[in-house]
Amino acid sequence: MRDPYDVLGVSRTADEAEIKRAYRRLAKKLHPDANANDPKAQDKFAELNTAHEILEDKTKRGQFDRGEIDAEGKPRAPEFSGFGGGRRAGPGGFNGFDGDTIFESFSFGPEGARRNARRGGGGGSGGPGGSSFDDLGDMFGFGRQRRGAGGGSTPPIGADMEISLPVTFEEATQGASKRVGLPNGKQIDIKIAAGTREGHRMRLKGQGEPSAMGGAPGDAFVTISYAPHATFEREGDDLRQTVDVSLPDSVLGTKVRVPTLSGTVELNIPAWTSGGRVFRLRGKGLPNATGGHGDMLVRINIVLPKAKDSELEALMQKLRSTAL
Fold first, then answer.
1. Residue 139 maps to a domain
2. What span, in angstroms and rounded, lies between the C-alpha atoms of 318 and 323?
3. Pair 44, 139 in one domain
4. How far is CA 122 from the centre of its chain?
5. Taking a C-beta distance cutoff of 8 angstroms, is the pair 219, 235 a contact?
6. Which structural domain range is residue 248 located in?
7. From CA 41, how far away is CA 47, in angstroms rounded?
8. Fewest CB within a 10 Å sphere: which of 84, 140, 169, 225?
């Protein structure tokens, strides 16, 4: 996978605002729904989301800059002193892991899949606090081909696969169950938790490509994307819509029913409201990074009667004369 900075097209000194702007611009350009004829659209979008996940998180970004994790967010293998680095406890004694074993785990939430480095200090085959052959194999990528009880080797695991799953704004906000069709023909129901954001990445263990040599299948990773909406226009975590108001109502004031992701609400339009005025409904937008929601921005559009009204025209003439 490419360097996250190259994927987003930003420099290594880019601040959070630059990274956010670059992600929004590219997400709109690379979204699978906007590139239906590109067979690699899902892969490009998944790569963008992974890069953004690393660079938007200060901890992960620091780990990547220091070379502790790779472009996929996976921990890099530590170096042995005999292979170009590492440290020794004494003459001939390797102590590159400080007596601990590094494992990789995942946690899931509205922000997507998180990889967490966890250390365990149990005694392995190397003695108290030491690392067993199996632990070392996991860290260096050959753990899936560990030596079996009979002295043989386990067949290699199949390849992982990436899938983009479009959801509506309502489904992301309120939660839903979605059926996903995998490239291998399987149909799987996935639960979308309420408050799920675009870019959330889920791991389906054992649902990837089968092994060509009879081993276990790989994993499938599902990345959430937002489907276009017929009424609302997205602007970050905020949503925009336009509501028509008649000329008399804009002058005298009225109440209008406005759709939101959680149902219709009543919006009070004060007297003498001009066309183009924007009202803000707080917390009625998309899930945001703080666990809350963005806002709904409602723009007023004044509409005239469909049929000509001579009395209205006479009144407008009078108002024009007065203004002059």
1. yes
2. 9
3. yes
4. 36
5. no
6. 233-323
7. 10
8. 84
Kindly report the CATH number assigned to the domain that includes residue 168: 2.60.260.20
Tokens of 236: 């970050």
Q: Which two tokens stand for residue 89?
A: 């406890």
pLDDT at 235: 93
Sign of the dihedral through C-alpha 17, 67, 197, 49: positive
Lowest mean pLDDT among 15-19, 132-136, 167-171: 132-136
Q: Are 250 and 274 in contact (CB under 8 A)?
A: yes
Reported confidence tier of residue 79, pLDDT bands at 50, 70, 90: low
Q: With CA atoms as reference, report the closest residue to 287 among 212, 175, 159, 127.
A: 175
Tokens of 260: 């939101």
* CA separation for the pair 30, 33 (Å, rounded): 8
Interval 99-132: pLDDT, tens: 333 333 343 444 444 444 444 444 444 444 444 4
For residue 232, the tally of other CB atoms under 10 A from its CB is 21
Residue at a domain's end among 190, 207, 226: 226
Whether the full predicted model's pTM is greater than 0.70, yes or no, is no
